[in-house]
Design a protein that fits this description.
single chain, alpha/beta, Rossmann fold, 3 domains, 20 strands, about 40% helix
């Protein structure tokens, strides 16, 4: 017989778990001791929300569910935003929370809330472990659910007394099921629809961001020459230097990309998930949409495809490529014009010497300095729009952003997880001053783990994204400004190196030095967002109106 907590950890090891992130409590001390004796590395974080962001990012990058641990009560409630981040973002995550003894408790209702019920709306499944004999099946089922399409979060509550009981149960082996391919007749119908179209385009979205999909999608685009664009969470699946790349849907309307969408008569939508901000609105322009995904499209008022190809995306795309014939009736001349004009526009202000730095110069210097396989982990803020739009990604999973829950505070935790998973790659976190301060305590975690990590704080002294919206609505500036600490001294207080950019020309050199250095570096970059409405709203509307 063995202790239930030991069996639980053995089950995690069978699932391939390498890291557990979190904060323990007295109710999980038996589990913590079992982890100590295992092969799994326990990463203590400074806040449960950050731990959930880290674990979700591990799941996103590996396909194996990340694991986060917290205690009951306030520890569990602190997880909520990170759990919702994984659930909406399609990131496999297993959440483990402690609980008081369920057989007999001497503390009444102290710290007790119904965590299982709290997790229900933001997970795929949530359950309490009531017997040690159920641990093998519950753990196996939790990982299967978390990792199955569509991936997401699963919660297990592990009471203190159950964790200390003895059991004869044994861990189950992990079984990897092969996903079914598409219906052949559906693929043939889709191929004929594409051949009959005049101006087809391909949309690559979040669910297409899988390792096997990249090669198949590249073959489809190379063979057919059909132009493609991406959602923000599909960014980087294909090399955006490709002459067929129309860009990333960073804005809701009136960008160069939207003119191409409006001209298209068929969109081949590969991996789109309606939890991500819509890249286009259906019902306008009379175009048809073919939905290709692991699962049928949930129909709503912004996404209602005319036809669906359901099955493993890589298999579906491979079969489509084999069945499709290049049509002499396709006309991509307008799309090539859009691509040319868009690229000209992104280059116009890339060397703007003004300071505080303009976002166009910031993004251009960032791209020039980052290695092709360097990873950007983005927090949420105005800079995310500029990077999604102006920063071409060359390799898969090199721009990590969240366009589903879109929570502030995720950037630094995501960067920490990305570096743990990719120790040989350069990792840079880009965060606004608002988002950075929401989880800046995790600098200590990064330093304790001896990570080589660079954090760029895009500093505008306020909530820049909402300011843009406020300005776009022609409302007076109100309620969005705040003060900041001295970020250079703040970095030093953690044992990190701090740098303050004093001119537009300084940034790329400082960034290059930080990327090439050991340890954690913080760059305070003052930015000027005053032209957001002018460039992204007024100027783009005027320049693309008659394209």
């Amino acid at each position: 017989m063995k202790q239930a907590s030991d069996l639980f950890v053995e089950c995690l090891e069978r699932e391939g778990v390498e890291y557990i992130f979190g904060l323990p409590g007295e109710e999980s001390l038996a589990l913590l001791e079992s982890i100590r004796r295992s092969s799994i590395k326990f990463i203590v974080t400074r806040h449960e929300q950050a731990a959930a962001f880290m674990a979700a990012t591990c799941g996103r990058l590996t396909g194996t569910a990340g694991v986060v641990l917290s205690t009951l009560g306030p520890g569990a409630t602190n997880l909520v935003t990170g759990v919702a981040y994984a659930q909406l973002g399609g990131m496999p995550l297993v959440v483990v929370t402690g609980q008081k003894p369920i057989r007999k408790s001497k503390q009444g209702q102290f710290q007790i809330i119904n965590v299982v019920q709290m997790m229900q709306p933001i997970t795929k499944a949530t359950r309490q472990i009531v017997s040690p004999d159920l641990i093998p099946s519950l753990v196996r089922d939790s990982f299967r659910r978390a990792e199955d399409e569509r991936p997401g979060a699963v919660h297990l509550e592990f009471p203190e007394d159950i964790a200390s009981e003895r059991t004869d149960a044994r861990a189950l082996e992990k079984i990897t099921a092969l996903r079914a391919g598409p219906d052949h007749s559906a693929v043939e119908t889709a191929a004929r629809m594409i051949e009959a179209a005049r101006h087809p385009v391909i949309l690559i979205a979040a669910a297409a961001n899988r390792k096997k999909d990249r090669a198949e999608l590249d073959e489809l685009v190379t063979r057919t020459g059909i132009p493609f664009f991406t959602t923000q969470m599909g960014k980087g699946v294909l090399d955006e230097r490709c002459e067929c790349c129309l860009g990333t849907a960073a804005l809701m309307e009136n960008d160069f990309l939207h003119r191409a969408i409006e001209r298209s008569d068929l969109i081949i939508s590969i991996g789109h998930d309606v939890t991500e901000k819509p890249p286009f609105r259906m019902g306008y322009g009379g175009r048809s949409v073919i939905h290709m995904n692991f699962y049928p499209a949930p129909i709503d008022d912004v996404y209602f495809p005319a036809f669906e190809v359901i099955g493993d995306i890589a298999l579906s795309v491979r079969e489509l490529t084999a069945n499709i014939r290049v049509s002499p009736g396709w006309d991509f001349s307008y799309f090539r014009k859009v691509i040319s004009e868009f690229r000209k526009h992104t280059l116009e202000k890339e060397n703007d010497p003004s300071f505080p730095v303009k976002p166009e110069r910031f993004v251009a210097d960032l791209r020039r300095t980052m290695p092709d396989d360097g990873i950007l982990a983005l927090d949420n803020g105005m800079f995310k729009i500029w990077i999604a739009r102006n920063y071409p990604a060359y390799e898969q999973n090199t721009v990590l952003l969240d366009n589903a829950l879109a929570s502030m505070g995720a950037g630094l935790p995501a960067a920490i997880a990305a570096k743990l998973i990719n120790p040989g790659k350069k990792v840079v976190c880009v965060s606004g001053d608002g988002g950075f301060m929401m989880n800046s305590q995790e600098l200590e975690t990064a330093i304790r783990l001896r990570l080589d990590l660079t954090v760029v704080i895009v500093n505008d002294g306020g909530y820049g994204m909402i300011k843009w919206k406020q300005d776009s609505m022609r409302l007076p500036s109100f309620g969005l400004e705040f003060g900041n600490p001295d970020f250079v001294e703040y970095a030093g207080s953690f044992g990190a190196r701090g740098y303050r950019v004093g001119s537009a020309a300084e940034f790329s050199g400082i960034l290059a030095g930080c990327i090439g250095s050991k340890g954690v570096s913080i760059i305070d970059l003052p930015i000027d967002y005053s032209d957001n409405v002018k460039v992204l709203t007024d100027e783009l509307t005027a320049r693309t109106a008659n394209l």
